[in-house]
Amino acid sequence: MSAKTIVHVSAWLILPALYVVFYALHVVTYGHPIEQWLPKWDRVLLILTIVVLERIYHYKYAVSQRAVLPRDIVSNIVNLWVTGALATMIFLPVLAFFPEHFLGRKLVFASSEQLGPFWLQVPVILLLVSFFRYWMHRAQHEVQFLWELHSYHHRVTDLTASNGLVSHPIDFALRNVLIFVLLGVVGFNPFAILLAVSVTLIAAEFSHCGADVKGGFLNYLFVTPEVHRWHHSATVPEGHKYSVNYGVEFPLWDALFSTFYLPKKAGQVEQPERIGHPGGLADESSYLKLLLVPLGLYRPLVRLKRPQGPQPAE
Predict the structure, then answer these.
(1) What's this model's pTM, rounded to 2 decimal places?
(2) Which residue has the higher pLDDT, 267 or 302?
(3) Whole-angstrom Cα distance, residue 261 to residue 227?
(4) Rounded mean pLDDT of 280-298?
(5) CB 137 within 8 A of CB 254
(6) What's the whole-number mean pLDDT along residues 218-234?
(7) SS3 257
């Protein structure tokens, strides 16, 4: 068997294999001291794995991201190690305060056992997370202010390991932190949350893989790169107003609410030729602009810059 044949065959097998490997890794290392030594080590390992895949399985429509790599690195650091902690500090008191003072009772249950057996909590959490994130993600396209925040994620010109976390911190927190804080407040079993989060995390990370890997039947179970590229298409598919494939980890809700899109030609999955902002805006290489412009805070900083060139006489 030639090397070319091996690469072709493995392109269909690599995704399911890696899903299993990383899911097992999360289960085996639960409570391991490595999380204290290197927080978010699993996310870093996922990103590095995707980088390797992108070198092995070259995607024919790949666009170099070197020019925006510094922006990507900063955004990854912020959203991996800062956004979650700050968002939790904000969300947690609010989620605990309002039910108790406006509904007359605490939202936290006395015991996670009240929420059902462990084996049932895992699929329930998966459904709740995927349902919430589908509608939050859809709102981030349909509500103008949320789109101002989210649109920077759609200005990338290709899906790669480095830009999966390129997102305004508020946009990132609403889609990726809020629901998990809420589940913890409600009182779900911590290990059930971990198992469920592992599935959603792995699927979401691999959706931004820039390698030419094939989803096959997984395209209808998880949000694979083949599915997610259509969400990032520079041209919104006909019949859809804002975008398609809003699911973050599973295409289930897209299928139910008629936003799933994965065209085929001669039995082969088609892919968009160009990825980018649907309005034609160029990618933003400045993280400072990504952070401040949507909040209307960048313009004052521009005024503080030292004027260039000759100055008018007094």
Answers:
(1) 0.91
(2) 267
(3) 7
(4) 95
(5) no
(6) 97
(7) coil
- Identify the burial level of 248 via C-beta atoms within 10 angstroms of its C-beta, where 0-12 means exposed, 13-18 middle and 19 or more buried: buried
Q: Count of alpha carbons within 13 Å of 10, Cβ hemisphere only?
A: 12
* Distance, CA of 95 to CA of 88 (rounded, Å): 10
Residue 233 · residue 82 · CB < 8 Å? no
Contact 163, 72 (CB under 8 A): yes
Q: Is 231:278 a contact under the CB 8 Å cutoff?
A: no
* DSSP category for residue 116: -
With both helix axes pointing from N to C terminus, report the angle between 190-206 and 3-28 in degrees, rounded to the nearest 10. 160
- Report how far residue 252's alpha carbon sits from residue 127's, in angstroms, rounded to the nearest whole number: 9
Decide if 142 contacts 240 (C-beta within 8 A).
no
pLDDT per residue over 19-63, tens digit each?
999 999 888 887 778 777 888 899 999 999 999 999 999 999 999
H-only helix segments in the chain: 3-28, 34-37, 41-56, 69-81, 83-102, 118-142, 144-150, 169-176, 178-186, 190-206, 225-231, 252-256, 287-292, 298-303
Residue 40 φ/ψ region, left for φ over 0, alpha for ψ in the -120 to 50 degree band, beta for the rest: left
